[in-house]
Amino acid sequence: LGAGESGIGAAILGKQNEYDVFVSDMGLIAKKYKDVLINNKILFEEIKHTKEQILNADVVVKSPGIPDSSFLIAELRHKGVPVISEIEFGSWFTNAKLIGITGSNGKTTTTSLIYHILKSAGLNVGVAGNIGESFALKVATCNYDYYVLELSSFQLDGIKKLKLDISILLNITPDHLDRYDYSLDKYIDSKFQIIKNSDENSVFIYNSDDKNITEKILDITLPKSAYKFTFNELKGKGAKAKDGEILIDINSPMRISADSLSLIGKHNSYNIMASASVASVLGIDEKKI
User: pLDDT tens digits for 116-137?
Assistant: First the structure.
């Protein structure tokens, strides 16, 4: 459902894995996407939803732009048809290590920075999600060992089995509350979907200066490997910013001088702490970081 970047990626990946694929969009489908569907002999419709065909699906991959409150989504769920996100669908067909980043602010900067560090360190890495090409399309057309995924709350809402190897939660401020019945608690729950399927090997990296994050953490069980980043005192392993330096202590201690950073400002210090923490978890050399 929905023939934008994520819908087209899911359609290509579905066709590749021998699903009978049907794409439906209530709006006009952009020419560049329509051409892809035609070239790949994928059935589609625009400016309508043929309900009988959609309700007959085994699985529906929903565009993040379509709210869960939509009547068609409610009908699908009532009938027991799984409705998932393109991120979830993509994860079914890759064995790559998955690094996911969410937060109300700073997602794109942090995703780009992590990707840049990993690529510069020589890892076979791709970037996708809410940035660039869709994850499903990358899975269908590339063969990366690592994916760095920028994840919006809307994408996280459609998760069933997706397990991220490393999850990063940057911050939570009220945003898109119209999609969450104007409930901040529901929006916070959506962000915490990022650790939904964590296991003993999962790593969680989070901002311990964010009140909405720290209050939620009191009510849940975190993955065994959970690292904070902060401007305050750091107890245990993690990252902190202090006196113009960023200190990372996860695998082995390292210091990053503020003078050597091209991204300035407190918000970027948080983004850098999160990114360097991921790189440290992966054992990347300090000089590369």
Answer: 999 999 999 999 998 889 999 9
